[in-house]
Amino acid sequence: MSFRLPGTERTRLATAGAQAAVAESLRAQPRGDRTKGTLFFALLLLAVVIALLGLAAVIIQSAIKGAPSFGTHLITNGPSTIFPEKAGFRPAIIGSLYLMAGVILFVVPIGVGAAVYLEEYANKERWWNRAIELNIQNLAAVPSIIYGILGLAFIVRGPLDLGFVVLAGALTLSLLVLPTVIIAAREAIRAVPPSIREGSLALGATQWQTIRRQVLPASVPGIATGVILALSRALGEAAPLLLVGAATFVTFDPQPLSGGYSAMPVQIFNYALRPQDEFKVIAAAGVILMLVVLLAMNSFAVWLRNRYEQRW
Amino acid sequence: MVSEKVADRARRGAEAATGRKGAPEIDISGVAEGVTHGHAKKGAKTVFDLEGLTVRYGGKPAVKDVSLGIHENEITALIGPSGCGKSTLIRCLNRMNDLIPSASVEGHCLYHGHDLYGPDVDPVEVRKRIGMVFQKPNPFPKSIFDNVAFGPRVLGLSDVRERVERALRSAALWDEVKDRLDENAYGMSGGQQQRLCIARCIAVDPDVILMDEPCSALDPISTGRIEDLMLELKEQYSIVIVTHNMQQAARVSNRTAFLIVELDAHEDNRWGQLVEYDETDKIFTNPSDSRTEDYVTGKVG
Questions:
Q1: Chain A nearest CA to B234, separation (Å)
Q2: CB atoms within 10 A of CB A26
Q3: Which of A254, B20, B145, B202 could be a cystine partner for B181, CB 3.0 to 4.6 Å?
């Protein structure tokens, strides 16, 4: 018995059938590498979680341990062995501020100047310029204690003979972070496209005018970010400072060019080593204080880079 | 008025292109009618005299033995296939090849009779007088005003504001930007950016303007506007333009130089050679060299 549907009905069924077939073929098919993809994604997430957990563990543990001693006395008072619950970080904070100021003063002109020379003036085909480039990258990886020994030998004693003063500490830290700043500044300068330089030179500007008025202004965000990140590294260094005389128990406000000084990481080290529990609590509070400052600095660096970054 | 001229030019350009496909010769009779740019002025002084100019990059020749004269207040076009050294040649004229450490120049490049590559010549001074507009518009990451004012400021010229306005007017950009001079130059369209680069170039009152394929990154309408601009500018400046667009050379230039790529016996060295240099009319309608004829009629290249 022949069974004929009316024409419109046949068309409707055929269309529906075709659509269903296409929808089925577009649906996600189970495949071997799809599960591999999901597994890989899960492993990546695990890596991120572990990294974050490690950081969170430090922060939370320090916060809990240091909570009892949070208060303004942390910032206003100096260390005290007699009244540990009232001890604070004041000389260390001032010492760190002086050190940071010194680092900025030395590292910005020298680091940016070296980067400008290497990028704009040096003939890159000469072997000695390539050797300099390689060595700067090596210097960035040298352990910080070595810079401490260098500072002790040449800055505190030796030719400069400054003694154990803040200036010596600042110079030592400057040497430590200088390679990082040079590398960051070079990257920022290199990111300025050659077409901008050519456009400037084609107008009759000298090379110096081109650098000062086009290249440097355009690379300021990158340079600033590099300097801030270098500063935050210098802020947290204890090893080189121990060697150049950041004495661990300073009760007075340090002076820039004379007398002893301390710095935050060194002071925390000192407090953490003492047997009394109250000092350990203060050390933990100091850790939180430093973390807050470092987080603020790094966030500022990231914001600065995002806000002013030039997209070519 | 401007749009009429642009449409007319576009039509003639299309005619020339399609005319070439069927006929053995380009029909540019429309270009020559009543328009002076097709004719070179007789007896015009030369701004540049190139004698046996050879440029090498790291010892390998890029362009060999070019001798020609660029005339004042004319538009001179350099045409030829890729790799024939047009850009290398034009960059010699304002010593931009100095920026490439491996580049060396032989022969003579005389500017108003003085050797540009002489021992006492300061390239910075050269570039003050001979400006350049590049293929890809390269405005500075500054405001429109600061872009045009950059040249006068670094050269210590006076009346910066007037110069900026005059330059923007000459570049046919003033009306479009006069209310937004403080805005970033990157907000402009490609055609506007290129006109900004031209304004920037003329703000320092150069003698010569070199243009290295100025319209190749632009759409046809912007190209037409810039070609109109070139025809106006040549009243005051001498213009040398490199173009891979033959119709453009036919439309705007007074004289045209045709270069080709030569290979040596082992085919590992390629360099550019000047084949013919003459008035544009002659190059496109009755060239002396058969290679020129093959190129302009589209048989090769």
A1: 19
A2: 8
A3: B145
Taking a C-beta distance cutoff of 8 angstroms, is the pair B84, B263 a contact? Answer: no
Tell me the count of A-B CB pairs closer than 8 A.
Answer: 65
The mean pLDDT of chain A is: 87
pLDDT tens, residue by residue, A195-233: 999 999 999 999 999 999 999 999 998 999 999 999 999
- Look at the pTM and tell me if it is higher than 0.95: no
Assess if residue B268 is contained within a domain.
Answer: yes
Which CATH number covers residue B148?
Answer: 3.40.50.300
List, edge to edge, every strand of the sheet that includes B238-242. B114-115, B103-111, B46-57, B60-71, B270-279, B255-263, B75-79, B238-242, B208-212, B130-133
Q: Which amino acid would we find at residue B9?
A: R
Domain for residue B47, yes or no? yes
Question: If contacts are CB pairs under 8 Å, which of residues 184-223 in chain B contact chain A?
Answer: 197, 200-201, 204
* Terminal-to-terminal C-alpha distance of chain B: 35
- Residue B250 structural domain: 2-296
Into how many domains does chain B fold? 1
* In a domain? residue B247: yes
CB contact under 8 A, A213 and B200: no
Residue B83 near residue B261 (C-beta atoms within 8 A) = yes
Residue B20: pLDDT above 70?
no
Q: How far apart are CA B115 and CA B128, in angstroms?
A: 16
Contact assignment for A204 to B155 by CB distance below 8 Å? yes
Q: How far apart are CA A189 and CA A185, in angstroms?
A: 6
Type and span of the H or E element at B260: strand B255-263
**C-alpha–C-alpha distance, residues B193 and B246, integer Å:** 24
The domain made up of A92-259 has a fold known as: MetI-like fold (1.10.3720)
| First-to-final CA distance of chain A | 75
